[in-house]
Amino acid sequence: MGEVTPESRLLRSFVAPIGHGSLWLRDVHAEETHDDWDPTAVACHAEGNSLAIATRLDVEGLTAVEIWQGEPEAALPVIVYSGALESAAGWLEVSDADSYVRMEIRGLPCSMKVQVFTEGGVEPGRVQIAIRAVNETRG
């Protein structure tokens, strides 16, 4: 996505057990289920206006998640997704598959460029999600 700029900022961060090792980022009105996704084969699955991201299984421990506007200050080494995400209202939901962990982020652009970074491996314990407007220029 580019370099860290003064506009880069941490929007949310949390450490939690992620149900079924599946972290979802999606438009708040999205209904995708990711039923055909195999997280052991593909680290991130895009369907409609929704992403499913493989993480450490909840029974194996906690996962640290950061959501950034712009580039993370210290990006993790592996990019598992780079693409677009649409939200009619600029309103995203971040949750695990069971909605045990769930939060909403409002005030985002309606057309977003999203990159997902992890530490690598099949069940990463750290995930960073970087969001910026599609038309945003880099410093």
What brief labels describe this structure?
139 residues; mainly beta; Substrate Binding Domain Of DNAk, Chain A, domain 1; five-stranded mixed beta sheet; five-stranded antiparallel beta sheet; 0% helix; 46% strand
Describe the structure.
With 139 residues, the protein is mainly β. It has one domain (9-133): Substrate Binding Domain Of DNAk, Chain A, domain 1. It is 0% helix and 46% strand. The chain has a five-stranded mixed sheet with strand order 1-5-10-9-6, with no helix packed on it. It is globular, with a radius of gyration of 14 Å. The relative contact order is 0.30.
Q: Mind sketching the topology for me?
A:
Blueprint lengths: L8 E8 L5 E6 L16 E4 L2 E5 L8 E7 L8 E9 L5 E5 L5 E4 L5 E8 L7 E8 L6
Parallel strand pairs: 5-10
Antiparallel strand pairs: 1-5, 2-4, 2-7, 3-4, 6-9, 7-8, 9-10
Short characterization:
The chain is mainly β and 139 residues long. It has strands at 9-16, 22-27, 44-47, 50-54, 63-69, 78-86, 92-96, 102-105, 111-118, 126-133. The strands form 2 sheets. Strands 1-5-10-9-6 form a 5-stranded mixed β-sheet, with no helix packed on it. Strands 3-4-2-7-8 form a 5-stranded antiparallel β-sheet, with no helix packed on it.
N to C succession of SSEs: EEEEEEEEEE
Q: Determine the CATH topology.
A: Substrate Binding Domain Of DNAk, Chain A, domain 1
Which value, in Å, is the CA radius of gyration? 14 Å
CATH superfamily: Competence, DNA-entry nuclease inhibitor, ComJ
Give the beta-strand count.
Answer: 10
At CATH's second level, what is the architecture? Sandwich
Helix content percent band: under 10%
- Strand content bin: over 45%
Q: In what order do the strands lie side by side in the largest sheet?
A: 1-5-10-9-6
Determine the oligomeric state from the structure: single chain
Tally of separate domains: 1
Q: Kindly provide the name of the CATH class.
A: Mainly Beta
Biggest sheet statistics = 5 strands, mixed
**Tally of contiguous helical segments:** 0
> Shape, please?
globular
Briefly note the structural class of the backbone. Answer: mainly beta
- Would you tell me the overall average pLDDT? 91
First-residue to last-residue Cα separation = 11 Å
